[in-house]
């Protein structure tokens, strides 16, 4: 029935009524906190383009993990900054690599925290690309072997979940095969299934020290203009054995989050990436926006679009407000 019998504002009148009819809710359980792990002891290098985010040595990160677990965030995802880089990214799969040493320390500090590891080579290569270079291009199949080695080394160190972000064709199958062969059949894979070549990654490249030294990543990350292609990528990753799929970035790709959830109905992650974070932080510092309200509205939109879990640099701060 039309107005005046129907008055939609009745259910918006008080905060208690609004809470009762609220359709989408954020919970600490929805959140995953990214951490940047660097060499040294007692190190906390603030990231200029990401206020509130820092590179942390293992001991400092362990304390951060305790605090993260204490506010109810169930998981962290680790990115490594190695002491040395080379053309083959050997630090990514070395037994004494930065992430391989961090995992047991973080799990000891926060035993119930799920430790997810990003699997890629870009932080570990001196050229900054996500794989092995041949004639100025990333060689897909040779890179798969190294990603599989990296994944097994992380699982051997105690990682609870592997998250390949490289966007090489066939990497989920290669990783799953290697994990199973080495006795890690119970280790799940969270695949960066639809990862776009986005300008929103700028601050991350400062944080992870992973900017490419030549060219760009358009030959392997997705074209922002393509949506149907993302569904094909997700379908292939699921066929290859992905347990969770991801859309990255989140805010400019809410339509893809919705489409993936509607089409596949599988556990879905979305990455609220560095540029999305930094824009809110910068505008908040300028006093142009209410930072906490805008932050919560953005995260709620990602959840409303269909994400089951959100990787976000806001995770610990938001969780404190939701307790």
Structural class: alpha/beta
**What is the mean predicted local confidence, pLDDT?**
94
Strand content: 15-25%
The number of domains is 1
Summarize the SSE layout with pairings:
Blueprint (H helix, E strand, L loop, with lengths): L14 H7 L9 E7 L6 E3 L7 E3 L1 H13 L4 E6 L17 H12 L4 E6 L12 E3 L2 E3 H18 L3 E4 L6 H11 L8 E6 L6 H7 L19 H13 L3 E5 L5 H11 L3 E5 L1 H13 L4 H15 L3 E4 L2 H8 L1
Parallel strand pairs: 1-3, 1-4, 1-12, 4-5, 5-8, 9-10, 10-11, 11-12
Antiparallel strand pairs: 2-3, 6-7
Helix pairs in contact: 2-3, 3-4, 4-5, 7-8, 9-10
Can you put this structure into words, describing what you see?
- With 323 residues, this protein is an alpha/beta fold.
- It has a single domain (25-322), classed as TIM Barrel, CATH 3.20.20.70.
- It contains eleven helices and twelve strands.
- Strands 1, 2, 3, 4, 5, 8, 9, 10, 11 and 12 form a ten-stranded mixed sheet that branches. Strands 6-7 form a two-stranded antiparallel ribbon.
- Helix 3 runs parallel beside helix 4 (140-157) and helix 4 packs across helix 5 (171-181).
- It is globular, with a radius of gyration of 20 Å.
Outline:
Helix content is 40%, strand content 17%.
Summarize this structure as a short list of keywords or feature phrases.
globular; ten-stranded mixed sheet; two-stranded antiparallel ribbon; TIM Barrel; alpha/beta; 11 helices; single chain; 323 residues
């Amino acid at each position: 029935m039309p107005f005046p019998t129907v008055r939609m504002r009745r259910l918006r009148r008080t905060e208690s009524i609004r809470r009762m009819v609220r359709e989408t809710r954020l919970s600490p359980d929805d959140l995953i906190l990214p951490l940047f792990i660097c060499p040294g002891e007692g190190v906390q290098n603030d990231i200029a383009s990401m206020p509130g985010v820092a590179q942390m040595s293992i001991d400092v990160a362990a304390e951060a993990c305790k605090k993260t677990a204490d506010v109810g965030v169930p998981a962290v995802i680790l990115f490594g900054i190695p002491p040395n880089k080379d053309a083959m990214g050997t630090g990514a799969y070395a037994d004494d690599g930065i992430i391989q040493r961090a995992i047991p320390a973080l799990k000891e500090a926060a035993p119930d925290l799920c430790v997810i590891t990003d699997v890629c080579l870009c932080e570990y290569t001196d050229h900054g690309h996500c794989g092995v270079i041949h004639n100025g291009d990333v060689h897909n199949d040779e890179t798969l072997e190294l990603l599989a080695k990296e994944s097994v080394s992380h699982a051997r160190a105690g990682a609870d979940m592997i998250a390949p972000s490289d966007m090489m064709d066939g990497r989920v199958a290669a990783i799953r095969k290697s994990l199973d062969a080495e006795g890690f059949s119970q280790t799940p894979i969270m695949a960066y299934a639809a990862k776009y070549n986005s300008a929103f990654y700028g601050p991350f490249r400062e944080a992870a020290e992973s900017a490419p030294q030549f060219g760009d990543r358009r030959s392997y990350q997705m074209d922002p203009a393509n949506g149907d292609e993302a569904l094909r990528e997700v379908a292939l990753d699921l066929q290859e054995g992905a347990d969770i799929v991801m859309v990255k970035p989140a805010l400019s790709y809410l339509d893809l989050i919705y489409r993936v959830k509607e089409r596949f109905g599988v556990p879905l992650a979305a990455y609220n990436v560095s540029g999305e974070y930094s824009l809110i932080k910068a505008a908040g510092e300028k006093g142009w926006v209410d930072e906490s309200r805008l932050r919560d509205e953005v995260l709620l939109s990602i959840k409303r679009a269909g994400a089951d879990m959100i990787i976000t640099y806001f995770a610990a701060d938001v969780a404190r407000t939701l307790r």
